[in-house]
Amino acid sequence: xxxxxxxxxxxxxxxxxxxxxxxxxxxxxxxxxxxxxxxxxxxxxxxxxxxxxxxxxxxxxxxxxxxxxxxxxxxxxxxxxxxxxxxxxxxxxxxxxxxxxxxxxxxxxxxxxxxxxxxxxxxxxxxxxxxxxxxxxxxxxxxxxxxxxxxxxxxxxxxxxxxxxxxxxxxxxxxxxxxxxxxxxxxxxxxxxxxxxxxxxxxxxxxxx
Amino acid sequence: xxxxxxxxxxxxxxxxxxxxxxxxxxxxxxxxxxxxxxxxxxxxxxxxxxxxxxxxxxxxxxxxxxxxxxxxxxxxxxxxxxxxxxxxxxxxxxxxxxxxxxxxxxxxxxxxxxxxxxxxxxxxxxxxxxxxxxxxxxxxxxxxxxxxxxxxxxxxxxxxxxxxxxxxxxxxxxxxxxxxxxxxxxxxxxxxxxxxxxxxxxxxxxxxx
Lengths: 209, 209
Fold this sequence. Notes:
By secondary structure, chain A is mainly α. The first copy, chain A, is built from 9 helices and 2 strands. At the A-B interface, α3, α5, α7, α8 and α9 of A face α3, α5, α7, α8 and α9 of B.
């Protein structure tokens, strides 16, 4: 198909497609004439992936590039899949490590009994995030973080179950699934907050009667 | 304090502070001379808030503006706090509603027995996110979403508990807490994935012996 048809098929403007081509996020098509190339199903799939990562996942183009580089790299052993996914998604520029809070995060994880392979980035990141919460709104005491960790365990068990089936697309599933389902979890949290608010409101009304 | 001292106190460059002032994210200081103003503790607090939302929360400046407008608005009744927070954080431009997937999301929430006050935005958003997952990596079947919803209920119950105490800063806590703790939850998920991977690996080794 022509570039204009790839645009129709994917719902992405030709201007954006040309940008993806220029930035090598999308492989060039097969040249047909001096000014025209032919694009195939692999291009459609790649464009849909970029679009999902940007629009639904909220990734920057720099993050999309890291994800795509990881996907284009040679096969990764199953037990390293989530590690590669995590690395591709890391915002290491986004936080400033704080030694005291890294220690808080490390101690939390140890008390929880979690075995962490590679905490050099994630533990300082968790510490910086807990510091930001404590500094700005006094949220994130030990009890709260314990409850969040309970929730995280449920999600992680589900994540690993998704990956145990034999799947040629496993890395793609690990990366894309993680990015997009982070967003689904945020939306479910908002919905569950509304439900919980309604429940508490009903309970308060009953106890007033 | 002078602008340069505000910069030292908060760790935000004077260029960024001038930008916040120009964009009215930060109130002007008290004029002292024709070229100098005096800034106080309220400025320090506001700059720390903006910084946390941008750096730790990953919000765009447009989102920061919505959050700040909500915070600067008159007192909001307790039961509307999370609604105002949700509205301030909404990325309505980020997704395209799909009627079939909105129906899937609505049916899911109903089956779950969740009472949703105001699903006009959140249900199409959930639908679009589930569609993106299904389209790109075949993740997000009913069982998986049920497990995510279990996790979301734990987090939402914790969120509401945080807000029940009497607190003049409740809206701030609702908004900032939600933004920053979304990030904490993402990090805890990554850590829990590592722990779960280690557990499964151990179990596989034992069953090989």
